[in-house]
Amino acid sequence: MNRFIEQFQKLPRSQRWLLSGLTYLCILIAIWFSLISPTLDDIDSGNAQKADLVGKRDAVRARASNRAAFEARLEDLAGKLKQALKELPNDREIPGLLSEIDGLARKSGLDVRKFQPLPEVVHEYYAEVPVQIVMDGGYHEVGIFFDRVSKMSRIVSVADIDMGSPNLSGEEISLTVSGKVVTYRFLSDDEIQQNGSRAKPGAPAGGGGE
Q1: Which of 187, 185, 182 is nearest to 118 (CA)?
Q2: What 3-state class would DSSP assign to 67?
Q3: pTM of the model
Q4: Fewer CB atoms < 10 Å away: N or C end of the chain?
Q5: What burial class does residue 37 get, using C-beta atoms within 10 Å of its C-beta: 0-12 exposed, 13-18 middle, 19+ buried?
Q6: For residue 86, what pLDDT is reported?
Q7: pLDDT surpassing 50 at residue 210
Q8: Ranges assigned E (strand) in 142-199
Q9: Cα–Cα distance between 54 and 48 in angstroms, integer?
Q10: Cα 127 from chain centroid?
Q11: DSSP secondary structure string for all residues of 96-151
């Protein structure tokens, strides 16, 4: 070691400075790769993990804050489903509902000449239940009937209405009204399965009679 120092001191000053600089540079490079660089990599990795955890925490907080809104929405949908179930009769209630519609027509002062259930029109989850109807009466009575139908607790629609030429009978004007009254019902689980395997939505199913 002493010999190295003696030889180092014999070198010109410029060479001693250069050698000293290279030595310090090598020491700095060694420190960088052995200590500083791994530490910086650990810091970057830690920052990335921290950002990922913060993102997950914020997502959990957002879901937690929206829980009340989700529960309220679910409760609202459940209420609407209950209301829809009330407005769509099941298969057992259809005869009574049709009888009610026929009674409304007669109570409105109309002469019901034809009240014929037609084949159901089956959709994916429900079926249309149409009835062909032909009635005689005045404009006022027809208006009363349509108004009463619109106020029924069940969903009932009127379609394909045709009003014939009015006839003057004494002081009253009478006309023949024909068309369809349509109500709806939910399909049972068995019917949905059967329709899915053998029928397309919208295809007629079943038949009706006078």
Answers
A1: 182
A2: helix
A3: 0.49
A4: N
A5: exposed
A6: 57
A7: no
A8: 156-163, 167-169, 172-186
A9: 10
A10: 21
A11: HHHHHHHHHHHHTT-EEEEEEE--EEE-SSEEEEEEEEEEEE-HHHHHHHHHHHHT
